[in-house]
Amino acid sequence: MGALGPWRGGATPSKANTSYWNRGPIPWVSPKDMKRPLIGEAQESITLEAVENSAIQRIPAGSVLVVTRSGILRHSFPVAVTTRDVAISQDLKALAPLPTVDARFVAAQLRANAAAILSSCAKSGTTVDSIDFDRLKRFPFLLCPLPEQRRIVTTLDRLTGHIARARHEIGQITPLVETYRQAVTAAALNGELTRAACGQPWRIFKARELFCWASGKFLPRSKQVRGDIPVYGGNGVTGSHTQSLIDRPTVVVGRVGAHCGNVHLTTGAAWVTDNAIYAQAIDPRVDPRYALLVFRQSNINAQSGGTGQPYIDQELLNQTPLHLPPLSEQLELIRRVGDACLRFERIGADQLCAAQLLPQLEQAVLAKAFRGDLVRQDARDGLLA
Known about the structure:
By secondary structure, the protein is an alpha+beta fold. It has helices spanning about 50-55, 105-110, 115-120, 135-140, 145-170, 175-190, 290-295, 315-320, 325-370, and strands spanning about 5-10, 25-30, 40, 45, 65, 80, 85-90, 90-95, 205, 210-215, 230-235, 235-240, 245, 250-255, 265, 270, 275-280, 320-325. It folds into three domains: about 5-145, Adenine-n6-DNA-methyltransferase TaqI, Chain A, domain 2, CATH 3.90.220.20; about 145-195 and about 325-385; about 205-325, Alpha-Beta Complex (Adenine-n6-DNA-methyltransferase TaqI, Chain A, domain 2).
């Protein structure tokens, strides 16, 4: 690495001198800015006076920047290429490549070797994670003729562009699935899923006609451990206990705070804490699983009161309307929504798998590039000088 061109270090102009920092035209790059492959801007900038009157140097456009001191080096090795003249902090080093070396080629190969660099060049015995610069300069670098370097960079740009688009598309799956989940639940609760199959009339009730509510009981956190009975609060299961407050599946609603309006269904015997309300009794005409769908879809938390900490009470729950089909149709709705949720879970698992494969694909592309297998080699490129 040391033979690729001159290296420069950075510095920090005196923060006490405001004339060095007052809306200067020169970006001052530090590790917190090293989140993009191309660097032309920074969170802070300095003036020409700072360059002229301090130890800091101007780093020309087309230089390769690497982080050599930062906590980020525990898990990654940030590399970037400058698109304009910049200045850098003392936590970075800058390489100005020789005319026969493409800066983007250098940056790509450094990314491909990031794990090896962190392993072999890490400086030990320091309080801050850092790279031993002398060892970094001795790190081996594979160099091919400049035309081939540029073909590799062009191909990498194209392939990494495909990977970036794939990452974006994969990221869109979660909101799409959630939208579809909401649509399926809405279709279930207005009868669209089962109207053709069942066709029996639905009745409209207020929740007060079908549910009897009770507030949960206080349970110290010290007792929410090492038991067989799940403890439910506004955020679902929060621990376990040796005693139960209820002994059957029931609806639990978060009563106060950040989890106000969250709705859960116990699986059987459970303890409900005092930051939740639970259905002490449920009319036998309502399946608890169907009630769970209704209360979740009714967006109770949007109706919460309180000027400081939001809260809901039993009266608000009692006003919730329920469009109630016959019990047999409720069971069919629950089955169909359950089947849809299983499909959603499979989609989510596929999404997670694809997202985990993308970094591996990126590394595989880089590895192929720097063993000479990514682009054609051409004898007309000539020999290295």
